Amino acid sequence: MTNDGRWGILYCPKGRGSKQREKLQKALDDRQVQYDFVQSESADSVERLMTMLIHNGYKTIIIVGGDSALNDAVNCLMKEEQQVRSEIALGVIPNGVMNDFARYWGFSEGDVEQTVDWLKAHRVRTIDLGCVRYENKQGERCHRYFLNCVNVGLIADVMNLRRQTRSLLGSRTLSFIVSIFLMIFHRMDYKMRVKINSDTVDRKVMTMCVGSGPGYGQTPSAVPYNGMLDVSLVYHTELLQVFAGLWLLITNRFLNHKSVHPYRTREVRVEEAKHALVGVDGRLLGVPVGAYTITVEQEVVNFLIPV
Fold first, then answer.
1. Over the chain, what is the mean pLDDT?
2. What are phi and psi of 293, to 5 degrees?
3. What is the pTM assigned to this prediction?
4. Which end of the chain is more exposed for a tag (fewer CB within 10 A), N or C?
C-alpha cells in the first residue's frame, strides 16, 4: 500500500488541544491538502503511530508537536532501512512545550496557515542527526538519536525537576519556575572526564551541551547539516554567575559567559560523569552506566523546511 500524495499527520495534543486541532484541520482543508489524521494519547504512543504511518506507505509524515515528539518520530524512522527512509519526508507543525528545532527553521507555533503553506511546497533538506550510544542499568547496549542536543549535568537535572514538579503542580510554566528555584539547592557540579578532539577535560563541570542543532541556546552556532557537533562545557561557577548565565542564555549570548568553553567536533567521549543525568532533546535519559559516546550521522533524514 502506498499513500504518495497524502500526508500522514501525527497529532500530539498540548492539553485538551481541541481548538488547535480544529484550526489546523481548517488550514489543511482550505488548502485542499489530502491527509489522514492520527492522534497520540501519550508519549509512548508516538512510536507506535509513527510505525503505523511508515508501514502504511505515507511518504510525507507531519508531526504536530514539540521537540520530544519529533525526537520520538525520528528515532522510530531510524529503525527503518535506508531505502525506506530515503522515500519519506518528515515535517513538523510546532505544538509543544519546547519547539526549538521548528523555531530554528522559522516555523512559528502561532501561524499554522503559513506553516502548512511551506510544508505543501515540499522543500526538502537532508539533515544530520546526533547519536548517543550508551549502556543501561540492565547491561544492554543502547542508542538514541537527537535533532537538538544532549545535555549532561545541571540542565538535565532541571529537566528532571521540571517533570517531577509538573506532576505535582500541573502547570508547565509554574513547574519550570519552581524547577529553576529548586536548582539552587541541588548539586551544581559533576566530576567529569571528557575527550573532545585532542583535548581531555578532567575536572568539575556544571553542565555540558552537545548540539547537532541550536541546543536551546546553548550551542547557538550549531547547524544540523555540516556533519559536526557543537559542544558547550560550563565549568563550575558561583551562584550569581549561574543566574548571569541564564540571562545570557535567554538573550542568545550564552557563549559570551566566561565559564562557557565551546568546541566543534565529530565525536565526544564521556569517560566519566558520575551521577550526572543525561537529557536528549528535552527528555530525560537517566544516568548511563560507564563511558558513552556522542557522534553525528550526516544527511540521514529528509526534513521539510520553509521556502
1. 86
2. -125, 150
3. 0.87
4. N
